[in-house]
Amino acid sequence: MQDHDELLQLSQQLLDAIAVNDWAVYERLCATDLTAFEPEARGQRVAGLDFHRFYFDLGPVQGARCTTMVDPQVRMLGEDAALVTYIRLVQSSSDQGTVTSRCEESRVWVRTEGAWKHVHFHRSQNE
Ligand code: GLY
After folding, report:
1. Ligand 1 cavity residues, CB under 6 Å
2. pLDDT for 93-114, tens place per residue?
């Protein structure tokens, strides 16, 4: 499989793991020293997986969820590093009806010993 297609597939797997609260998949795809800027961290750069695990440990959210990467772009930063950017749309349903949220995401992947690992991301506020 081409790197481009594999990175898009892995990115979708990562987002689906978040949507269905699948910690095993999320952990497998991420480097243990993953760094991140995301709204939950209130402007701090967080390192490691514990910060993210907190949310998985809360358990799955109620209702269906569908996550779509809109206009995804893969930019190779060398043979073994890549930047994936896209708009993330999350459709969800609850007793109150359906809602769609959007945000911008940039995710960096590095290939180590033949396997791509997610090493950094930056996510905007949800709108
Ligand atoms: N908050 C976890 C992630 O977006 O990767």
Report:
1. 18, 38, 52, 121, 123
2. 988 899 999 999 999 999 999 9
